[in-house]
Amino acid sequence: MSRTPRTFRRRAALLAVPAAALLALIPSTASAYPNPGVVTGATVVHDPTMIRASDGRYLLYATGGGLSHRTSTDRTAFSAGGDAFGTRPSWWSSYGNTEAWAPDISYHGGKYLMYYSVSTFGSNKSAIGLAGSSTGLPGSWTDYGVVYSSSTSSDYNAIDPNLFVDGDGKWWLSFGSWWTGIKMIQINPSTGKQLSTNTPRYSLASRPTGTKAVEAPYIVKKGSYYYLFASYDTCCAGTSSTYKVKVGRATSVTGPYYDKNGVSMMNNGGTPVLESHGRVIGPGGQSIMSDTDGDLIVYHYYDGNDNGTPKLGINLLNWSSGWPVAY
Fold first, then answer.
1. Domains of the chain (ranges plus CATH)?
2. Going edge to edge, which strands form the sheet with 171-175?
3. Gyration radius of the chain over CA positions
4. Is beta strand 202-205 parallel, antiparallel or unpaired with respect to 182-187?
5. I need a surface site. Which of 60, 65, 122, 181 has the fewest CB within 10 A?
6. What pLDDT, in 10s, does the model give residues 7-54?
7. Contact 229, 253 (CB under 8 A)
């Protein structure tokens, strides 16, 4: 379950390269995944989510404690700050954990929102919580309690939330880890919780045969397609981790999602975006962020040159083929 670019100094040079030449730089085979962009400072993270504030600062939150915090002014040098929650909400302990996992930060209606999950490793007695803040800074978050939960009798796991807001103003929350895979519910924009007039739990991705290991959904829309990113296989095992990021796309936010070969994500489908290569072991726990120079995939990986320590990875995405390619 989900826990816990080339260098950006070349960014300006890349933007000046003609499109055809740029495409030649983008990896096209599984053996040519790019290394993460250079980041420095407080870069030991798990399941990172990042947003750019109105003052230009990058706010990053990640798994651990009361949701650990990092900040950067240039997307390269990161500094650690206090946790989102200095005092952790008391209801967390009902789910066997006093730490929070896999946050998802966004900004809507003049407020920062952060969905997150509480659980214990290997259990689906879990809950997704929601908090709001006017600044997005540690210590400023007000907790709004449980949004959605699962129990040991459920066939799903309520962790790894991601909020997607459609162009027509509808809000959707995808989530899930192992069991029967990735799920989605519709959210009431006024409350941030499930819409009472639409209560189905939609299924987006599953692995009905073999390992059940699919989790950490993240949805974006490009053109007429919705793209579902997810992490596959096993995380949290250092250099033995087999985590990887795959994607599928659909013409409806609730699916069905298919990979590049037309295989349904409900039937083990998924087109690779990032896999292990060199010192980069088990990339996953990803989020997608739009920045001034393009879309970013923000993720963690285990550093094979540093005893499998989880590190922050950031790469740009190219969408020219109709599918996201990291570079």
1. 8-326 (2.115.10.20)
2. 162-165, 171-175, 182-187, 202-205
3. 18
4. antiparallel
5. 122
6. 323 333 333 333 333 333 444 444 479 999 999 999 999 999 999 999
7. no
Closest CA to 225 of 103, 324, 99, 118: 324
Sign of CA dihedral 89, 131, 229, 16: negative
**Where in the sequence numbering do the catalytic residues fall?**
47, 215
Is the CB of residue 297 less than 8 Å from the CB of residue 314? yes
For tokens 């919705």, the residue is 226
pLDDT of residue 162: 98
Q: What is the pLDDT of residue 98?
A: 76
The answer for 180, left when phi > 0, alpha when psi is -120 to 50, beta otherwise, is alpha
Predicted structure pTM score: 0.90
Which amino acid belongs to residue 134? S
Q: The sheet that has 142-150: what strands, in order across it?
A: 101-108, 111-118, 126-133, 142-150
Distance (Å, rounded) from C-alpha 128 to C-alpha 88? 14
Mean pLDDT for 132-152 is: 97
